[in-house]
Amino acid sequence: MTAVGIDGIEIWTGKLKLDLPGTFAPEKGDDPEKYTKGLGLTNSSFPDVYEDIVTMGANAAKRLMDRKGLEPSDIGRIDVATESAFDHSKPVSTYIAGCLEQVYDGDFTHANKGERKFACLAGTQAIDDAYNWIRAGRNRDRPAIVITTDTALYARGDPGEATQGAGAVAMLIDEDPSIVELSTDQGYGSKDETDFLKPNQQFPSVDGKRSVQVYLSRMREALEDYESVTDDIELEDFTYAPFHTPFPGMVRKAALLAYRHVIRDTAHEDALADEIGRQPREDEYDDREAYEEAIRGYMDDLKTTEQYRTWYDTAVEPTLELSREVGNWYTSSVHIARVSALRDALTRDREFVGDTLLVASYGSGAQAEIHAETIREGWRAEIEGLDVDDQLDARYDLTWDEYEDVHDVHEYDMDVEREIEEFTQPDGEFVFTGWGRMNERQYEYVE
Ligand SMILES: CC(=O)SCCNC(=O)CCNC(=O)[C@H](O)C(C)(C)COP(=O)(O)OP(=O)(O)OC[C@H]1O[C@@H](n2cnc3c(N)ncnc32)[C@H](O)[C@@H]1OP(=O)(O)O
């Protein structure tokens, strides 16, 4: 079977940043370590006044097409995954295609375009759609572009305000891919939940604490489902485990649960038995409460063991590197976790071809999905070509007052009467220019 997977990746970060321990924490009267140690975040990216989900997505896609030497007529499909769409009918992919057609010869007339929604999970689902379309032989040898793009903003004063972010990832899905091949095996955990939702509103209604529990429950179900269709998971089989990362502290919780689950009844559990005992089994306890208490005690001990720390520091911690610097990018979040892992492999000069990633995606509302990916021959050149560090370094560092202005500018229902100047100069990129006669958002390319 011909391999299908991710052939190219480009990232576009919002061009502003908010320093969480330095600027946000003092305003909120919080200890800065709540952000750096608790949530695990240093900065959040924000869009400048001329940026939005279309400009960020189009800018990432243009970089991808230029890098890969592609013209619009080469592309068979453009899918956008977002939970920040401003149009209930016209998909964001048409706006992005319209931007790209301003700068390339030819057009995307014969490309199938769409928009995928399932909170932060939608990007992974859009990759699935592209994969299935290629596997079904309907692609006429053409690749698909999948774009994940979000302005992850919460209402001012909501606890979620600490976990905002903005950015886009563009990925080329193709046969014989350069970066990773996707597995056919997948595990799902899915339930109707009301933990985080946006019923006809821009900012989420979110029950933050519950959303954390829902994430963990759906991930456990997805892992069990994945195990049911594959051989038992061996930790050694996966070099990295990129998770959906709303904030790194969330992944710290998920990774510990996953580790406990995977090592049960294995030599890893036996190896830890002298130090922290064996995992509590439910049938050893009189009631559920006592069992759960015992599990909590075991987990507290487990996370301090050298065995666990070594696995976490090698397979999980490196996937959090970009997230710490940019915050939650919703649909892009798991995809920047994968990029962080690949960048770590590059830094360590790993012999990486043929290694496997265990990729765990999640969307509120709620569904988790787990699959494996195998590293391909061309990964190194693709990752070396990314300029993420330059983009992060170039971000404008907002003061608190500027942050409030930027949040207001991007709130759809707020009429900002005062003129707010852009903080950065657009340079070789798409920008938002205003509204057209049918209330459509309009864009231009600035040289
Ligand atoms: C959108 C999705 O992807 S859904 C899945 C995740 N959900 C979200 O992202 C929802 C949006 N976010 C939120 O609602 C909020 O930001 C939350 C719920 C994540 C956190 O809310 P808060 O109540 O402000 O923070 P909280 O008091 O729980 O502190 C966060 C962490 O920092 C820790 N912390 C607090 N102060 C400190 C400190 N001074 N030093 C070290 N750690 C600290 C807390 O103990 C907690 O860690 P723990 O959960 O491991 O105990």
Automatic annotation (TrEMBL):
<dbReference type="GO" id="GO:0004421">
    <property type="term" value="F:hydroxymethylglutaryl-CoA synthase activity"/>
</dbReference>
<dbReference type="InterPro" id="IPR016039">
    <property type="entry name" value="Thiolase-like"/>
</dbReference>
<dbReference type="GO" id="GO:0006084">
    <property type="term" value="P:acetyl-CoA metabolic process"/>
</dbReference>
<dbReference type="InterPro" id="IPR053544">
    <property type="entry name" value="HMG-CoA_Synthase-like"/>
</dbReference>
<keyword id="KW-0808">Transferase</keyword>
<feature type="domain" description="Hydroxymethylglutaryl-coenzyme A synthase C-terminal">
    <location>
        <begin position="194"/>
        <end position="411"/>
    </location>
</feature>
<dbReference type="Pfam" id="PF01154">
    <property type="entry name" value="HMG_CoA_synt_N"/>
</dbReference>
<keyword id="KW-0012">Acyltransferase</keyword>
<dbReference type="Pfam" id="PF08540">
    <property type="entry name" value="HMG_CoA_synt_C"/>
</dbReference>
<dbReference type="GO" id="GO:0010142">
    <property type="term" value="P:farnesyl diphosphate biosynthetic process, mevalonate pathway"/>
</dbReference>
<dbReference type="InterPro" id="IPR013528">
    <property type="entry name" value="HMG_CoA_synth_N"/>
</dbReference>
<feature type="domain" description="Hydroxymethylglutaryl-coenzyme A synthase N-terminal">
    <location>
        <begin position="4"/>
        <end position="175"/>
    </location>
</feature>
<keyword id="KW-0414">Isoprene biosynthesis</keyword>
<dbReference type="InterPro" id="IPR013746">
    <property type="entry name" value="HMG_CoA_synt_C_dom"/>
</dbReference>
<comment type="similarity">
    <text>Belongs to the thiolase-like superfamily. HMG-CoA synthase family.</text>
</comment>
<protein>
    <submittedName>
        <fullName>Hydroxymethylglutaryl-CoA synthase</fullName>
    </submittedName>
</protein>
